[in-house]
Amino acid sequence: MSAVRVATRASLLARTQSGIVADALRARLDREVVLVEVSTRGDVDQTTPLASFGGVGVFVSAVRDAVLRGDADVAVHSLKDLPTAPAEGLRLAAVPPREDARDVLVARDGGTVATLPAGASVGTGSPRRAAQLRALRPDLHVVPVRGNVDTRVRKVVDGELDAVVLAHAGLARLDRLDAVTEVLETDQMLPAPGQGALAVECRDVEDDAALLDALRDLDDDATRVAVTAERSLLAALEAGCSAPVGAHATVSGAPGEAVVHLTGAVVSDDGRVQVRKSVTGPAGDAEQVGRSLAADLLAAGAPGLVNGTRP
Ligand SMILES: NCc1[nH]cc(CCC(=O)O)c1CC(=O)O
């Protein structure tokens, strides 16, 4: 049988994540599984703000194109980087078990959000993290940063910044949890929809039955339900990945009676206005649960926040 080719971005985090999926496929298929690196404009140029490339979508589409062209069979992404619109010609074949979805602080001298000195500079490129940081500590100086996880951590180690906010999941996968000085609870910092989860796509028309079986086996039901609710909320708010929207869902209960509990928040850029709500519904209706929470948030005044802060 031919090798399975896994398309990945070239960054260390992307290669690590794709390696996790490649290992999982290897364990389920008695086949060779190889990584195919795709370099994107967003990876090559680490300084230009992402918005001028058309947002993080640039990372995703180059990897997808490799699969659509037939240069690879499977694409691996961070699920939170995927636009909510479905991709023509591809399907979301597997959502593997999620890592910790929370954000973390990496600060000098063991700092936490509560103990950072007045006016401390905290790096993040995410409007969602910036807005929630300002809500917690209006005195903080939020500095836009780009670059991979290692570069961001180094800015703290080198003293260029007092702290950065990153995803727990990325640091865990890179074995860099030693740098974490505080895990931010979701009531302080609601993660991005899909944070901590991976997305594995294949061609719509894929006819490799063994590969499709392996992908199905890699899919985690509870993770798929949770991220479906979170992304349905995001889509219904008509907010993109750069909007100050947080969402986090958990699934509980026996199969057949499982429920999904979804919390969502929209925050003004300056952190002064936060609309935050929760809803619980049947796991089988995850999309509807997300849409109904979006309606609640919109009724509570979220539209001005979503629209007012889009680039
Ligand atoms: N924005 C880039 C990005 N996309 C996914 C992750 C981490 C892994 C994940 O959230 O699953 C990161 C880095 C970060 O936010 O710290």
Automatic annotation (TrEMBL):
EC identifiers of the protein: 2.5.1.61
InterPro entries: HemC, Porphobilin_deaminase_cofac_BS, Porphobilin_deaminase_N, Porphobilinogen_deaminase_C, Porphobilinogen_deaminase_C_sf
A Pfam family recorded for this sequence: Porphobil_deam
GO molecular-function terms, A-Z: hydroxymethylbilane synthase activity
Cofactor list: dipyrromethane
Cofactor note (record): Binds 1 dipyrromethane group covalently.
PANTHER family listed in its UniProt record: PORPHOBILINOGEN DEAMINASE
Subunit structure: Monomer.
Listed NCBIfam families: hemC
Family stated for the protein in its record: Belongs to the HMBS family.
Protein name, entry field: Porphobilinogen deaminase
Lineage, highest ranks first: Bacteria, Bacillati, Actinomycetota, Actinomycetes, Sporichthyales
